[in-house]
Amino acid sequence: MSVNNLHIGIFGRRNTGKSSLINMITGQDISIVSGVPGTTTDPVKKSVEIFDIGPAILIDTAGIDDLGEIGTKKIQKSQEMIRRVDCAILLIAGNQFGDYEVRLIEQFRKNEVPYLIAHNKSDIDKIAAITRSIIKQYSAAEIVDFSTINPADKERLISALKQIVPETAFQKSSLIGDLVKPGDVVLFITPIDSEAPEGRLILPQNQAIRDALDNRCIAVVVTESELTDFLKLGITPALAITDSSVFGTVAETLPDEIPLTSFSILFARLKGNFDVFLKGTPHIAKLQEGDSVLILESCTHQTSCEDIGRVKIPKLLQQFTKKELHFTVISGLSKLPLNAGDFSLVIQCGGCMISRKQMINRLNPFIEAGVPVTNYGMALAYLHGIFERATGVFGKKAGK
Q1: Is the pTM here over 0.85, yes or no?
Q2: Could you report the per-residue pLDDT of 217-272, keeping only the tens digit for each?
Q3: Nearest Cα to 287, choosing from 242, 233, 323?
Q4: In a 3-state reduction of DSSP, which class is residue 286?
Q5: Same domain flag for 13 and 118
Q6: DSSP helix/strand/coil, 364
Q7: What is the domain-level CATH number for residue 213?
């Protein structure tokens, strides 16, 4: 499942037919369909190719009117999903439109999620003029009256869906396409340590190497131990990309005239607010005794003594600042702390496992609270004294 695929969330009350809608679009019995309210618990994701839209991930969420303690938790998960989708379908049925739907619309607007409103089960009860009138008081979104049991309605719904898909969803993004030209040698320095998966490269390395090949470059891959041997060949790379964990060693070995950055910094530029990262990173030098630092990992993995987010960065931060700092680590897309202002710095991982939309919405509460934000690669470059060099390849002025 590609995180760069379009994420489409389906939201609404219980028994409006969200699961049936998923099954209609995919043409498969993916989501459980039941007349019992509250059948869907955790969000269900299904990858699908939608004609004229492309690869997408449909997300079936729990009803926003669920009851009880467990129901409240399911609603919270559904609401959290709004921050992760590129667009949404607000599903209603039986001409029901009220506070539940209005609150969802408010959340869509807050998170800048384009959406349409679909009235399901038109075979039983078509949408009434009064319902349309009430909806128009709260939303200018397109309203589609349809039934999941009517095959012809599938095309009408997809046609309306195409109108709300963000243009960025169709843009093919490149990690290094604007930094290199066909025929350039791109050097990748990929350490093989206890954090490296057995028999393969990690996702950021895979994606960056593929991007170099897509841009018709010559990709050369070495570990930091073989970097000196490579340089003896007399080949001058147009760009060198290293794992942030060996920034110090690589920067000392690689001649200054060779542009250098890291996998993590490339992903920060692709998926995050790069200017915010540039501005936030120098705040590392302003950390005070007892400050709290939040480290956000976007995936879950086994940790080791060489773990970059849980071990290396905290250790280097304390050595650099000579202050006693407090660290909180949140992995995956787990719930964020309620008070963003409790932290003096947020350090986000590269984000290879999440979409741009997910990263931006995840960091926005901290940015809005005035908390400096950086990422793994930028933080490590700063701590090793090569921040200007590692970010200068993008033509940006660090810290400005």
Answers
A1: no
A2: 999 999 999 999 999 999 999 999 999 989 999 999 999 999 999 999 999 998 88
A3: 323
A4: helix
A5: yes
A6: helix
A7: 3.40.50.11420
Cα 179-184-189 angle, rounded to 5 deg: 80
- Tokens representing 394 are 């993008």
Determine which helix (DSSP H) or strand (DSSP E) holds 242, and give its type and residue range: strand 239-242
- Supply the DSSP string of 13-35, one letter for each residue: STTSSHHHHHHHHHTS--S---S
Does residue 232 lie in a domain region? Answer: yes
Q: pLDDT tens for residues 20-45?
A: 898 888 876 654 444 444 444 457 88
* Span 280-291, pLDDT tens digits: 999 999 999 999
CA nearest 148: which of 16, 35, 266?
A: 16
Q: What are phi and psi of 230, to 5 degrees?
A: -65, -45
280 and 235 belong to one structural domain = no
Check whether residue 386 and residue 286 sit in a common domain: yes
The verdict on residue 400 lying in a domain is no
The encoded tokens of residue 192 equal 């093989």
User: Cα separation of 340 and 364, whole Å?
Assistant: 10
Q: Where is the domain boundary, 205, 236, 265?
A: 265
b/e code 8-31 from CB counts within 10 Å (16+ = b): bbbbbbbbbbbbbbbbbbbeeebb
224 and 297 inside one domain: no
Q: DSSP letter string over 90-155? A: EEEETT--SHHHHHHHHHHHHTT--EEEEEE-TTTSPPPHHHHHHHHHH--S-EEE--TT-HHHHH
